[in-house]
Write a structure and sequence with these properties.
Layout lengths: L15 H11 L5 E3 L11 H14 L6 E4 L5 H14 L3 E5 L8 H12 L6 E5 L1 H4 L5 H10 L5 E6 L4 H10 L1 H4 L3 E4 L5 H8 L3 E2 L8 H12 L3 H20 L2 H11 L16 H10 L1
Helix pairs in contact: 1-2, 2-3, 3-4, 4-6, 6-7, 10-11, 11-12
């Protein structure tokens, strides 16, 4: 889920309930991941992120899955955010690597362990070395699954080395691997990753605009109808590629606004798509 900001770049908390309603009722999202990369989490202060958790959880039906991104520069802030997500009524948390700081594997394990031991919520890790420069190594993930006191590390969102998922499953063993979830964040590559690399789900960005297509792809994959899933993705791919050319997040927020959702804007330095790209987006999507 995107986070609404004003044109000036301020957190627009007043739009959060309506935007949450849009995702649930119009986009038919089966669950929400808030305050992640798409949610521009590091453009928010710690108090603003806590407020976001509260507003989304409060605006969602009872029992509806809401996962909160709690990555932070400092471990103590990530712990504070994890506790806030639990107190707000979120279903679980996503924990990414602290950006820019480049922790070692030993330090990364300590970071995750400290956060996991501070909450009973299920946690899935977020491996995004393209943005954070640090790779969550398969051995580190397996160590955490087996040793965290609360036994609440239950999956990973892998956007780095695709083969890591297969390696993790091998290291965990069949029974333990079945208890884990393996997500991708890339809509265009989802079918291939599910088919060939053992991924089990997606935190979809494009699903807010193309809910029927993403639900259809999921249903086909879960039914073993891989070719049908590939056909739906093939038809969807040109639209995703067009959004990427104009800036995926900027395009997403622009198109959501065109549909009446209070998605807001990206804080500068990210800019709205150019008029030329806006015309292409409106004509094609």
């Amino acid at each position: 889920m995107v986070t609404p900001f004003t044109v000036e770049g301020d957190f627009d908390e007043g739009s959060v309930p309506e935007l949450t309603k849009y995702y649930i009722e119009e986009a038919k999202a089966p669950g929400l991941l808030i305050s992640g990369t798409t949610g521009e989490q590091h453009c928010l202060t710690i108090p603003e992120r806590k407020k976001l958790y509260e507003l989304v959880a409060k605006s969602s039906p009872e029992g509806y899955p809401v996962y909160a991104g709690v990555a932070a520069f400092k471990t103590k802030d990530a712990i504070e955010l994890a506790k806030a997500a639990e107190n707000a009524g979120c279903s679980g948390i996503m924990l990414g690597v602290p950006p820019y700081r480049i922790p070692s594997q030993r330090e990364l394990i300590a970071y995750v362990t400290d956060v996991a031991n501070a909450t009973k919520l299920p946690i899935f890790l977020y491996n995004n070395p393209n943005r954070n420069t640090v790779q969550v190594e398969p051995e580190s993930f397996v160590h955490l699954v087996k040793t965290v006191k609360n036994r609440n590390v239950c999956g990973i969102k892998e956007t780095g080395v695709v083969a890591n998922v297969e390696k993790i499953k091998e290291l965990l063993g069949e029974d333990l691997a079945k208890q884990q979830s393996f997500f991708t964040g890339g809509d265009a590559s989802y079918v291939n990753l599910y088919k060939n690399h053992g991924f089990t789900g997606i935190t979809s960005i494009a699903g807010a605009l193309f809910p029927e297509e993403l639900m259809s792809i999921n249903q086909h994959l879960q039914s073993g109808e891989i070719e049908k899933a590939e056909q739906v993705m093939k038809a969807l791919s040109p639209k995703i590629q067009l959004m990427q050319k104009a800036g995926f997040l900027q395009s997403l927020k622009y198109l959501l606004r065109q549909r009446g959702a209070p998605a807001g804007y990206c804080p500068a330095p990210l800019l709205d798509p150019t008029d030329e790209h806006k015309a292409l987006l409106k004509a094609s999507i």
